[in-house]
Each structure stands twice: as C-alpha cells, then as structure tokens.
Amino acid sequence: MPKKYAKTTTTLVIVESPAKCKKIEEYLGPGYKCVASFGHLRELNSLKNIDIANNFQPKYTDIDNPIKIKRITQLKGEISSADDVILATDDDREGEAIAWHICDMFNLNVERTKRIVFHEITEAAIQNAIKNPRTINMNIVHAQQARQILDLLVGFKVSPILWNYIAKNADNSLSAGRCQTPALRLIYDNQKEINENPGVKKYNTTGYFTNQCIPFELSKKYENENELIDFLEASADFKHIYSCTNPAKVFKSQPEPFTTSKLQQASSNDLHISPKETMKICQTLYEGGYITYMRTDSKTYSKDFIDKTKKYIETTYDANYINKEIDYLTTGEKDEREVSSKKKKKTEKDKPVTQDKPAPQEAHEAIRPTNISLKDLPEKMESREKRLYKLIWENTLESCMEKASFYSITANITASLDNKYLYTTEIVDFPGWKIVKKKYDSENKEYHYLLTIKQNYEIPYKKIQCKLTLSNTKMHYTEAKLVQLLEENGIGRPSTFSMLVDKIQERGYVKKDDVKGVRKRCSDYELENNEIFEIETEREFGNEKNKLIIQQVGTIVSEFLDKNFQNLFNYEYTKEMENDLDKIAKGEKIWHTICAECLSQIDNLINLLKETGEKKHEIKIDEHHVYTIGKFGPVIKCSEEGIEGIFFKPVKKDIDLEKLKAGEYKLEDIIAENKSSTDRILGQHEGEDVILKDGKFGLYITWGKNNKSLKCFGNRPIENISFEDIVKILEKEGNLLREVSPNISIRNGKFGAYIFYKTTKMKKPQFYQLNGFTNDIKLCDVNTIKEWIEEKYKIR
C-alpha cells in the first residue's frame, strides 16, 4: 500500500540537500516543512531525446535508480498534502533548472510558484528569503538547458570519432568535451613550451658583506663562464663602496575577497587540497551554516556583514585597522558606481525582457564566513574542514582591513666591471591586514644596522659565491594554475572548474605526479681571501612536485582534435560560447540558436574529416612493430616472423611522441623492458606497472605495493597470460571497489561488498551493509551510492 500523507496546513520548502533541512525548519518554525530533492530528478542522456527539428526541445526522463524513484514518490505525496510550496534550490543555473523540473513534474504553476534564494544558512538569511520570494527565471533555465544540450552534442557526436580514429575502451572510453578539450589543450600547449624551452644556464652571484655577512645579490647574472671568472678576478682587489637609499614608505594591499576560482587556487597552493575536494568541503561548510554559497564570481560582501565586520575589527584590534574603502566592498555599490561613471542610460525598449529580479540583498557575495566572530570551527569538525574554514576566515577579515605600510631601504654596493650588489629590506610602519597572521618582522635588526653604515664607505667583501642555475624554464602547471587559466580564458564557469580539472585526470589524459629533474655536473665558483675556487658538484634541475603531466594518450587526443576540430575547441570559440550562455541567462539571446550553430559546426567538421581520408592513429616503427593506443593505453603492436598472430608489448612512460614520429628511437628504447629474466611488465593499471613474476611458489604479479598470486591460472604457460587477463582479476578481486567520499568507500570483503566508514577523528572504522542497494555498485554513478548511504545510514 502506498504511504498516505495527512492533509495539514503546511508550507513545503524544497531544497537540494537533506543536510539543510533540519536547520531551515528550526529557523522557520511551525507550519513549515523542509524536504530535499537530492539534486536533479530528471536527466537528458541521449541525442535521441532532443527534438532537433523542433528548436532542440528536450525530452527528459526520470533518473532510473531506486533512490530517485523513491524521492519522486515522496515529493509527489508531500506536494499534494501541502498548502503552499516554496522552491529553495541553489542559486545557480542547475538550481534554477531543478526548480523548474519540480514544477514541470508535479504540475506546479511556473509563473506563480514561489522561488526563494539565500546564500548562507542563517536565520536572518532564511527569514529574509521567505519575505522576498520571486518566480522561476526561465532565462536561467534556458541557459542551463542550452549548456546541457551543447555538452551532449559535443560529447555524443565527437567522442565516437576518437574511438574510430584512436582507440575504444569499453570501461573508460576516450571522450571530447566542450570545455574538457580546451582544458586539456592548456596542458598540451604548456608541455610543448616546456619541450621547446630547455632553459638558460646562468650564475647567481651573492656577495657577503659587513660583519653580519649580509647576502647582497649581484644585479647581473652571467651566462658565460669565462666572463664570470673575469668578474671574480677583478673583484679581488676592487674597492666596494657602500650607499643606501633613504627610507621610502611602501604599501601592501589587502587580499581580495574569495571568488570560487581564487579559493580553489589558495586551497591548492596553501593547503594542498585539490579543487574537487575543496568544493566538497565547502559544500559541507555551507550546509552547516558556516560559510556563504561557494559558487560565485563576486568580490563583494553584504552591507550587514560589512557593518558586523567593522565592529569586530574595532573591538579586536582598533578602528584604524578598518579598511578606509571598506564600503566599496558592499554588494552592488561597485557596479552602480561604474554605471553612473559611464553616464549611460538605457531606454525601456533597449532593456532585455527578464524575469523578476532578485532583491538587492539576494545578490551573490564573495565566499565568506557567516559569522566573522567565529575564528575556529568546533572540535567535532574534520581537520580539513577546519583548515579550509580558517583560510576563508582569514582572507575575509584581511580583505576588510587597512593596507599594511612599511619603510623600505635598498643598500647598494659597487662591484667590478660596472656591476652592483643590492639588498632590500623593510620594517613595519603599520601592520594593517598583516596583523591577522602576524607574518612580519617587527624589529628587523638588519634594517637598523644598514642605516648606521656611513654613505660612500669602502666595505670589504667577506666572500663571493657564484652558483650555476637554470633560468627561463617553463614549469608544469599545478591544479591551482590550471584553475586560474580556465578563468582567464573563459573556459567554463566557477561551478565547473574543479570538475574540468578532475575530468582530464579521470580520463587518463593528464596525471598529477612528480617530475624528476635531470642530474648535471656543475662548476660553481667562490672568491675568498682574494683566491678563486672552482667547486665541482652535481645538481638536479627541473624537479617538480604534484604537477599536472600530460600522458601519451592525452597528447594524441589533443593533437587529433586540434587538427580536425580546431574551430570547435579553440579558446576563443569556447569563451564566446560561455558568453552566449550568459546572454541567454540575461534574456539577451535565444537559447536554441546557439545549439543550432554548434550542431552545424560539428557536422561540417565531421564531413571535412571524412573527406580527408584520415587514417587510424598509428606510428610505424619498423616492418613488424607499430605504436598504437590499445584498450589499456599505449602499446607496441607486434607481428614478428615465426610467431603466429598479433601480440602487444608495453610502452615506456616517458616517450617523446615527436621524437617517435621522427624515427629517433630504437625499438628497445620504446618497449618497457623486463626487470629480470622472469619478470614481464604487462602494462599499466591505474597509473602503476603490472609486473608478472615467476617465484618460489609459482606465478604472481606485483602492482604498486601489492602482490597477488596467480594460482587461478593453474599450469598455463607464462607467455600465454595477457595484460587483459590480469586486469580482469584486479578489477574483480580488488579490495577497494569505489571511493565515495573522503570518509566513505565501498570495499570487497570475504562475504561481498560492504561500506567502509572512517573519519580522521575515529580510531576504528565502522562497517555497513549494502542490503537494499539494487544498482551495480561498480558502474552506477557515485552520487547514487552517496545519496543512498546518506539516506539509509545518515553518514557522509
């Protein structure tokens, strides 16, 4: 029997996440009930569901999994029993679309159903939203629909081209994406620049002067070793004359408020948390009422928050520490000043047709704490949540404080051959925003000491050191740098940056890894007591940590798409398409026109590709060996005389494809060699070599830090065991099946799959059963698992 819903005088508030419901009900009081949609309820999963001839009208289907089906049934009952319904989904395009879907699914009037938005889960924000409802903005809904259809057009029409011309992998097919491909291109272009710029050898010269041996840097960096030696010889009896500038007051500006991309960059650089994880943690902090909404490109705060922050700064520090221009950070004021300065007014007919506009207090803010007085999170919170919150709190407070001022001096010492040594130092005058972290030297003895030395005083050197360095080198990108470049190039929007960074890694195009430098012999030089010493040493150049490294398959995919679909994926076209989506959201462009333009572009490029007679990607090495992309990545396809059929050999990781195309490699330089007479490197699985070995107790494999017996193969000859055979075993019997969240994973045990739950605060993990979960645990969307676990066990 279906559950009956008693008729009550209730206003139903529908949000996306169940984590918000309890607090919202507390803030609204009796008469209100808050339920969650758990995100989207319907999907558009095929081109067949788009009526292209009818202005790209989409035909949505209910998401087919037990959780969503149950949720739809529950919502139907709740809506039918409520007196009024208020849609409170997130204030972004996806949230607006979810609100519209709810209206469309449950026969709610789009033009009359109340829609509220809030950007922090506090009583004041919720109450204010209830007092200022609006209706669904169909312009924003159409922008979301257009984005979804564009992504489907690119993904479903271009990705199969990659399968035909490069490789098809049933488990993790190659794919092209409207924003994913330009993101990959950024990594590819940077790698190209790295390859073309090996760097320039230069000597950094440091002269140690004064009784305190203060290190002065030589203004010139010598590239020629003989010229450097000439300089040192001339320095031996050169009269070094000291001078110093008068103290000059310098100001250091406070940081800007956090936008989504700036927070992701700071979190990656300072806390070493990936953009994807940063957004997950932010979601928890937002739902807990600790921070404002985390998807924003605003750099402003609400007037109410500014007023409270002023009081906090005055009480904690002093009124002098309040930013003199703090009111410029108030939401909307900047835009209003810019408009008034241009003195440009629009007539009524010039204005685009838009839906009800949000009230001024509903405007997006920068990411900030909801309560500036809360410096640290409660002890019950996770360590990474505390660290990220502290980063947001500090940045917010600093952005509202006055500039820091310092007195700076630059000491100069003349050097031989018309060079000079420089040393700049400073002392704090007014710490301003820097007082928050207190990262400044309040005394700085060197500053005072240098001012006591007489001007034009001859000052002998203690020692002069010349160290060989590599300059003008290009570095691989960090995740933070890639986010910055995505924003600068208009690829995607704040809500998608973390997903794009994650997606190109998930596809195997890019890997976050360390770069091992090249070890070279170097000759450093030192002048001491008028004698020159040559110091021979070895030094590694080019070491990098946690950088995004393009993989061979990523290079091949990027080059293929750039060659054949350049007009679809170039930076400018991608940026223009994002701008068009913004125009749709503002009512300035008809949504289905850009879908038609994009489809026409794709079809034209596909037809051109067919006409060129492009062949499947392969690089011929010799008559019997071809480099190609196999099911599990790059391989050498072999057809040797005397051996029946085709077989494959693994490829080394660090192959330069340009050199390979130019024929600069020997076969033995490409193939991953066996580590011993009995070891065979079969290939790579999830970034680790899979090595087949014959040991004391029979055949086994090593994979990363794991060893696994192969008794299941019985007496099968070692040469008849393929990489595909091993991967099937690893995937079937691997202990870790799915990573659901930082605290939750699905693991394989003696009696089947189970839920493993452990937070950093827990000494021992907890285990839960998967009874009742009907989807394929390995293949279903991870959010489906996450939602089921959260609903059934109330853990996350």
UniProtKB/TrEMBL annotation:
<feature type="compositionally biased region" description="Basic and acidic residues">
    <location>
        <begin position="333"/>
        <end position="354"/>
    </location>
</feature>
<dbReference type="GO" id="GO:0006265">
    <property type="term" value="P:DNA topological change"/>
</dbReference>
<dbReference type="Pfam" id="PF01751">
    <property type="entry name" value="Toprim"/>
</dbReference>
<keyword id="KW-0238">DNA-binding</keyword>
<dbReference type="GO" id="GO:0003677">
    <property type="term" value="F:DNA binding"/>
</dbReference>
<dbReference type="InterPro" id="IPR013826">
    <property type="entry name" value="Topo_IA_cen_sub3"/>
</dbReference>
<protein>
    <recommendedName>
        <fullName>DNA topoisomerase</fullName>
        <ecNumber>5.6.2.1</ecNumber>
    </recommendedName>
</protein>
<keyword id="KW-0799">Topoisomerase</keyword>
<feature type="domain" description="Toprim">
    <location>
        <begin position="10"/>
        <end position="121"/>
    </location>
</feature>
<dbReference type="InterPro" id="IPR013825">
    <property type="entry name" value="Topo_IA_cen_sub2"/>
</dbReference>
<dbReference type="InterPro" id="IPR000380">
    <property type="entry name" value="Topo_IA"/>
</dbReference>
<keyword id="KW-0413">Isomerase</keyword>
<comment type="similarity">
    <text>Belongs to the type IA topoisomerase family.</text>
</comment>
<dbReference type="InterPro" id="IPR025589">
    <property type="entry name" value="Toprim_C_rpt"/>
</dbReference>
<dbReference type="Pfam" id="PF01131">
    <property type="entry name" value="Topoisom_bac"/>
</dbReference>
<dbReference type="InterPro" id="IPR013824">
    <property type="entry name" value="Topo_IA_cen_sub1"/>
</dbReference>
<dbReference type="InterPro" id="IPR003601">
    <property type="entry name" value="Topo_IA_2"/>
</dbReference>
<feature type="domain" description="Topo IA-type catalytic">
    <location>
        <begin position="137"/>
        <end position="606"/>
    </location>
</feature>
<dbReference type="InterPro" id="IPR003602">
    <property type="entry name" value="Topo_IA_DNA-bd_dom"/>
</dbReference>
<dbReference type="InterPro" id="IPR023406">
    <property type="entry name" value="Topo_IA_AS"/>
</dbReference>
<dbReference type="InterPro" id="IPR006171">
    <property type="entry name" value="TOPRIM_dom"/>
</dbReference>
<dbReference type="InterPro" id="IPR023405">
    <property type="entry name" value="Topo_IA_core_domain"/>
</dbReference>
<dbReference type="GO" id="GO:0003917">
    <property type="term" value="F:DNA topoisomerase type I (single strand cut, ATP-independent) activity"/>
</dbReference>
<dbReference type="InterPro" id="IPR013497">
    <property type="entry name" value="Topo_IA_cen"/>
</dbReference>
<feature type="region of interest" description="Disordered">
    <location>
        <begin position="333"/>
        <end position="366"/>
    </location>
</feature>
<dbReference type="Pfam" id="PF13368">
    <property type="entry name" value="Toprim_C_rpt"/>
</dbReference>
